Amino acid sequence: HDLVAHGTPREQHTWPRLIGAAYPDVLVARAASDGAVLELVLWPGDGPKRVALGVENLLPGAAYEARGAEIDTVIADRDGRATITIDLADRTALTIVPRGAAR
Prior knowledge:
Blueprint: H1 2-6, E1 17-21, E2 26-33, E3 38-44, E4 49-56, E5 63-67, E6 73-75, E7 82-88, E8 92-98
Antiparallel strand pairs: 1-4, 2-3, 3-8, 4-7, 5-6, 5-8
């Protein structure tokens, strides 16, 4: 209700977020960020397959751990974006964390 009635708080516009997930291949059950970490829960929508996900609002040039991805380290490009590949066969949790963070 609050999201529709009031929109997102301005500071959340700069938090890491999912910007690309091909439907119906990927069904996003959860996407949440605390400003540094992005947590996703994904389901296959059209059977098991390898999919690419787009993420933005990362720190340009920074390394991130992609826990649950095919390759566990990604580097954000100069625009703060990255593409992450995962094998999606069942419920999959993916967490994108700045390299060296305690989480």
